[in-house]
Specification:
It is a single chain. It is built from 17 helices and 39 strands. Strand 9 and strand 10 form a beta hairpin. The chain starts with a strand and ends with a helix. It is of the alpha+beta class.
Length: 754
């Protein structure tokens, strides 16, 4: 045994915030001062390749594994480490496998309070042709006590988690069942969870009572549910069941409650006898992205400990949360961001801002409750958001990813960012791609600046659709009618065609300023009649040819392209055999309908009581250095976009094992011919090469002409159209009857929301 006191270091108490007292104009409900807060301390793991996934609190100790690589022997070793919360000391032991075990790689571990570790391990034959799953146990000093081959018991199932009950018996989750073992690893049977194939185990956890429970999801084709159920070891069956249990991303035994539940946003307490959850705290209020919490537990004194692995912020470690009266924590002004569904990225950006800012604290309010999606629909959530925008609960910022931007701008509820940009000491208008600012400018007001963006367009053979960009819906219909034996797009339904036809045309039937609508016009009737030619739904069948193959065989005319890097167009050049054109989605005036989707696009509300703080947040995410990493689009800042263009054309050199560039027989650097590839089951494939300057210029041209869509497929108007059009699609009503109903309903809605 030895100590390494520097392995873990208790960081200073972070600046923590609670919302200001009462409500101000534009303050959302979440800005009400809370009675209790959970103040965090952060424990930083400083050395070694630590497995955060298996970190576990037992008593006053945190146990975890580290991985070490020996360059000389080219072998990996593992250690069991223990961090004491009492004296902040660290002890570690090298894991010593038994001689008969051979090479084993630990997959999942479970620690007891005395440091004993049970684990699922993989072992391999000498030639690595076979692999075996083993249940193994190590004592507190890392010595292996047993290793049982359980491959036959698990079958083809991937064994993901295990737990040990209060009597020392072992439970391992498999596909649709739980395997049971005694303390020595001897099989004692199994418990079948479900035989329908519609159920999968999400959680295996030891409860406060020492019993082991499973949390599992069930989907019957229409609705989903979540159930917590006791595993009856002696009876080899499922025990007491708690249906409609709150859906969780993580579950832990509580102290005052039977369980603590985390859904990625908040933590609740749950007592089995009461069968209901009680809200405790938001992770974000403790400067933690709840989506990055790998595990959490509760100490006997009520403190909560969370294992954090936040890839966005490159932040990994442990947080120890202490419950305190709100007045004991430093006060900050709360800035509320409204989002329909939220995102991992938004939570991470909020955490980073909150830790760095001493005056403001970002709070995220999600309007879609995915834990109760059967009752809380997208339409309901959108209605609630719109109601809040026009009330005293107006948020400070709005995530624009799933709202009708033109509707909000017509209402005048969004702040003009031009004055803020002019006064900014960090950003200038000239820093950004010009069309991005133009696209988000309405009646002279710049309402948002996305961090990144991508473009969506329609691609077809130039010999068929022409070589210019842009066409009308009538021209699209004419193309379809001229090729009756071919599909317009590959296997698409009525809903897809309706959204495609309305994407840039939705607001042509609504004047948001006057409230006038024209859904009873011949133009809209033509859309419904065209959509009615397509199937209600599409069923995939095995052995069907891929979209590229079907296009090349003349079975499909057009493709929808999502362009998020400079490589995308070359594949369509291949699919259409050098004869492609990005014609775009159909529009009323026939101009190029290239859809612009902004990422991390937020707008400040005109009613916000914290506009300067909201702008500080926008500045922080726009200037963040990590924004150089774009996985889903192009950066809006020109210098970063220029760097992306440059890197796209730079050659990829072939490197040796030391990272040095390999050279050919002439002493020239060896260049990799392909970057990545795409393939389909029918054999069609394509290997990407470096884009040409012409291809990069074409992508830039699409960027310069792209604009946000007016019809996002998620709002109340979409719901009205879909509901009423169904009567026409099913032959129950004429097109004239349907458009009349749509006209009346939409006009009432627009009048109510003006």
């Amino acid at each position: 045994m030895h100590r390494r006191g520097t392995a873990l270091m208790l960081a200073a108490l972070t600046v923590f915030s609670v919302a200001a007292c009462g409500k101000t104009e534009g303050a959302a409900e979440s800005a009400v001062k809370k009675e209790w807060v959970y103040v965090p301390e952060f424990i930083t793991v400083e050395e070694g390749n630590v497995s955060y996934y298996d970190m576990q609190l037992t008593g006053e100790n945190v146990y975890y594994l580290t991985y070490d690589w020996n360059e000389e022997t080219q072998e990996q070793s593992q250690r069991i480490c223990r961090y004491s919360l009492a004296d902040k000391s660290v002890t570690s032991h090298v894991i010593a496998m038994g001689e008969e075990s051979g090479r084993q790689d630990i997959n999942r571990g479970y620690f007891l309070e005395d440091g004993t570790m049970y684990a699922i391990a993989y072992s391999y034959s000498e030639d690595y042709s076979e692999s075996f799953q083993c249940l193994t146990m190590f004592d507190a000093e890392g010595k292996q006590k047993f290793s049982q081959d359980i491959t036959e018991l698990s079958g083809d199932s991937y064994l993901d988690s295990l737990a040990v009950d209060g009597e020392g018996r072992i439970y391992v989750s498999s596909e649709g069942k739980v395997l049971l073992f005694d303390a020595e690893g001897n099989s004692k049977g199994s418990v079948i969870v479900d035989n329908t194939g519609n159920t999968w185990i999400d959680t295996l956890v030891r409860g406060k009572d020492g019993k082991v429970y499973i949390g599992y999801s069930n989907y019957d084709g229409n609705t989903s549910s979540y159930t917590l159920c006791e595993v009856d070891f002696d009876g080899k069956k499922m025990g007491a069941s708690y249906e409609n249990f709150p859906r969780s991303s993580s579950l832990a035994a509580g102290v005052e409650y039977d369980f603590l539940i985390s859904n990625g946003r908040e933590v609740s307490g749950y007592n089995l006898g009461q069968k209901e959850a009680e809200y405790l705290f938001d992770w974000l209020d403790s400067d933690i992205n709840g989506n990055s919490v790998r595990k959490f537990s509760q100490l006997e004194d009520g403190r909560v400990i969370a294992v954090i692995e936040d890839w966005e912020n490159n932040d990994r470690g442990i947080a120890l949360l202490t419950k305190k009266k709100a007045e004991e924590a430093p006060q900050k002004e709360t800035i509320t961001i409204a989002t329909m569904g939220g995102s991992y990225s938004l939570q991470s950006k909020a955490v980073k801002f909150n830790k760095a800012n001493s005056q403001y604290h970002i709070s995220v309010k999600e309007y879609v409750n995915y834990d109760n999606s059967n009752e809380n629909t997208w339409s309901d959530a959108l209605t609630n958001l719109n109601n809040d925008i026009t009330s005293a609960n107006c948020p400070d910022l709005i995530d624009l990813s799933s709202v009708n931007i033109e509707q909000l701008t017509a209402k005048g509820v969004l702040e003009d960012l031009n004055p803020y940009l002019e006064k900014s000491g960090k950003l200038n208008k000239s820093d950004f791609v010009e069309n991005i600012l133009n696209a988000y400018t309405f009646n002279g007001a710049l309402i948002s600046i996305p961090v990144y963006f991508n473009v969506q367009t329609v691609v077809g053979a130039a010999s068929m659709v022409g070589s210019e960009s842009g066409w009308t819906l009538d021209e699209l219909i004419a193309l379809s009618n001229a090729h009756p034996d071919a599909e317009l797009f590959d296997r698409v339904s009525k809903q897809y065609i309706l959204r495609m036809a309305m994407m840039f045309n939705g607001d042509s039937f609504i004047d948001w300023n006057t409230g006038e609508c024209s859904f009873d016009s011949d133009a809209f009737k033509n859309i419904l009649e065209f959509v009615n030619k397509f199937p209600d739904e599409i069923k995939s069948e095995e052995g069907m040819d891929s979209e590229p193959t079907r296009i090349q065989n003349g079975e499909v005319l057009l493709a929808t392209s999502y362009i998020y890097d400079f490589n995308q167009l070359q594949m369509y050049n291949e699919i259409f055999k050098g004869d492609y054109n990005c014609i775009g989605f159909p529009t009323v005036d026939g101009t190029g309908g290239h859809a612009l989707s902004g990422g991390d696009a937020y707008a400040i509300t005109a009613k916000s009581g914290h506009k300067d703080g909201a702008w500080e947040f926008l500045e922080s995410i726009l200037t963040e250095e990590d924004n150089e990493r774009y996985w889903n689009g192009f950066p809006t800042i020109k210098t970063r976009l220029d760097n992306m263009k440059k890197k796209a054309m730079e050659p990829d050199y072939i490197l040796d094992e030391n990272g040095e560039i390999l050279k050919d027989e002439n002493g020239e650097p060896m260049i990799s011919e392909g970057t990545s590839s795409v393939g389909y089951e029918d054999g069609w494939s394509y290997t990407y090469r470096k884009p040409t300057q012409e291809e990069i210029d074409k992508v830039v041209e699409l960027m310069d002409n792209a604009r946000p869509v007016s019809y996002n497929g998620n709002d109340e108007i979409t719901k009205i159209i879909n509901e009423e059009a169904e009567g026409f699609f099913k032959g129950q009503k004429s097109v004239d009857e349907v458009v009349g109903i749509i006209q009346n309903r939409v006009k009432i809605y627009v009048g109510e929301t003006k």
